[in-house]
Amino acid sequence: MPRQHRHPLGRATSLLLAVGILTACGPVLSAPGDEKAEDGATTEVPRLSEVEPLADPRSWDGVVSVDLPDPEIDPVSDDPAPALPATVTDSQGTKVTVTDTSRILALDIYGTLAQTVFQLGLGDSVVGRDVSSSFPEIEDRPLVTQNGHELSAEAILALDPTVVLTDTSLGPWDVLLQLRDAGVPVVVTDSRRGIDNISSLTQQVADALGVPDEGTVLGKRLEAEADATVEEIADVAPQDVTGQLRTIFLYVRGQAGVYYMFGEGSGADSLITAAGGYDVSEEIGWKGMKPVNDEGLISAQPDVILMMSKGLESVGGADGLLERFPALAQTPAGEHERIIAMDDDQVLSFGPRTSDVLNALAVAFYAPDAL
Questions:
Q1: What long-range pairs does 78-83 form, CB within 8 A, spacing at least 24?
Q2: What is the Cα–Cα distance from 115 to 292, expressed in whole angstroms?
Q3: Is the distance from CB of 135 to CB of 224 less than 8 angstroms?
Q4: What is the pTM assigned to this prediction?
Q5: Distance between CA atoms of 48 and 70, rounded to whole angstroms?
């Protein structure tokens, strides 16, 4: 079939890589101009159970781009009453006491923490946002990030927050130390993102804000939604690994010369598996996040490449990626330019969006013509 280019829109580990991928600082992960497009164009994604999978998913040629609509905010409580003071030991072992939740900042690379706060019912107390948090309920709050995902101490302190929730995906770290020196309680949550810690991450946020019961309810709800989606995917995706699409996750930033393949324990592996693909990294012994090379690409022989949308854009699309890595032409994915590009803020976010992300990727794998 002719090449088709669809919609031309556009368990992280504890590895703290120098390039700032996922769990480290953010300037390389997103550069100036990486802000989400404001043209409102998104990808309407049907439920996998409602579409007809391709008889042979390997017959699909071309790029599939996915940018999910804004998340639906459905708080578990309309008027939660935080039990304060709340004292927690955060993910770094720091004991933090929160006495006031009237002015909350929840900041991370994917907007997961801010969405969680809103889903807990405390959205009205959120006074600012990071660039990844752009859903309608929060978009009128001032930005406290600059140059992509770089925290601005001046912008944060100007909002007089009573508590800051964050992780290690944003930086520079000195900004958070400055906030603590100014007397602001800073709670560092788990930076790892995966299906297995949806409820525990939710509970960390809820405990810090004094609403542990709401956290339990929300965590169970998010887990149930993700489990239901995984079951839907299991009904469609081939059970034999030979029938599943061999998949790799490439993280690239062409303008910064960053080219990585995410392997075992990176978060991408569990994402690919849950979405019905076959993660190749274990087979080829690719652990963690490492610079990609021709040998790795040829060994992987992917049927499809999963990427962040702006990563693909940064190398000039599929043609630019093939020009940068000619070895890709020796793989089924390269031969057919079979690439799934998903919005940067969504693809590895997990948390409240896990179910939607998994469903979208499964549709892109096995019913791309429905997008």
A1: 78/121, 79/121, 80/120, 80/121, 80/122, 80/211, 80/214, 81/211, 82/122, 82/209, 82/210, 82/211, 83/210, 83/211, 83/212
A2: 33
A3: no
A4: 0.85
A5: 19
Q: Is 77 exposed, middle or buried (0-12, 13-18, 19+ CB in 10 A)?
A: middle
**Residues 313-370: pLDDT tens digits?**
999 999 999 999 999 999 999 999 999 999 988 998 888 999 999 999 999 999 999 9
**Token reading at 262:** 């995410």
Measured between alpha carbons, how far is 290 from 54 in angstroms, rounded to an integer?
Answer: 33
> Per DSSP, which regions of the chain are E strands?
63-66, 86-89, 95-98, 104-107, 145-146, 150-151, 163-166, 186-188, 246-253, 258-262, 278-279, 289-291, 304-308, 339-342
The dihedrals phi and psi of 137, each to the nearest 5 degrees, come to -65, -15
**Contact yes or no for 297/325 (Cβ under 8 A):** yes
Instruction: Pick 63 or 4 by higher pLDDT.
Output: 63
The pair of structure tokens assigned to 57 is 């998913």
Asked if residue 133 lies in contact with residue 145, where contact means CB atoms within 8 angstroms, the answer is no
Asked if 199 contacts 105 with a C-beta cutoff of 8 angstroms, the reply is no
CA-CA distance, 230 to 235, in Å (whole number)? Answer: 9
- Residue 147's CB is within 10 A of a number of other CB atoms, namely 14
Alpha-carbon span 140 to 155, nearest angstrom: 15
